[in-house]
Amino acid sequence: MRMRLNPWFLLALLALASFGQSALTNDAIIKMVKAGLSDDIILSTVKAQPGKYSTTADDLIAFKSAGISDKVIAAIVERAASGGAASTPAPAAAGATTGPVSEVGVYFKKGDGWADVPPEVVNFKTGGVLKSIGTAGLVKGDVNGHVNGSHSSTQLKTPVDLLVYTPDGTAITEYQLLRLHDEKDGREFRTVTGGVLHVSGGATRDLIPFENKKLAPRTYEIVLPNIGAGDYGLLPPASSDATSSSGRIGKVYSFRIIE
Asked: Quick check: pTM over 0.70?
């Protein structure tokens, strides 16, 4: 009895066979999804292999139309923002302190270790223009961020202990901790664009101040002992997420506090 193979599966095998020869592309990811490969396999491949991805708004819509999950799309956006290089930890400089994690991202305390907080895709749209003008004559606007789904899949209990490993050259103070509000088709928040010299009014309504402790180079611990129940997100700066600077697409590391 002859077994018929799914043609998409054959295409995925060809794509996998070529990984060592060329970088992953949008088409390669779509072929893997069509072949029925799991999110875990695709995520591991995206993180381990170099890639040349296009992440314009049209490309992300094409990903969704092809049945690619938000988790995989967020990983592709993150890889594209980092230049598409494979996730190989850089060698530690002489005398440098090695931290508990070695890959850019956000983690939460789980037992004696740290577990990954998966990023979610954010759709940004520009809101009203802030009436704040700096010495350089800059006028910046606030933006509304929309995240699909009623709640984050990452559920935590207080006190919340987070670990952030930042991109090279990015300070932890460039991250924003935001409260996410329930909407009929997802969650939303309001924040401000980068470079605002003075902000006021509704643009900072969802911004939550936090303190941090530096554990190692590019590695920071954030403890939130009294945060209330609800959905939250840690928003990386636009400089570490090239697509978010367009005001259309970005990512947020979301979590939900349950009591």
From this structure: no
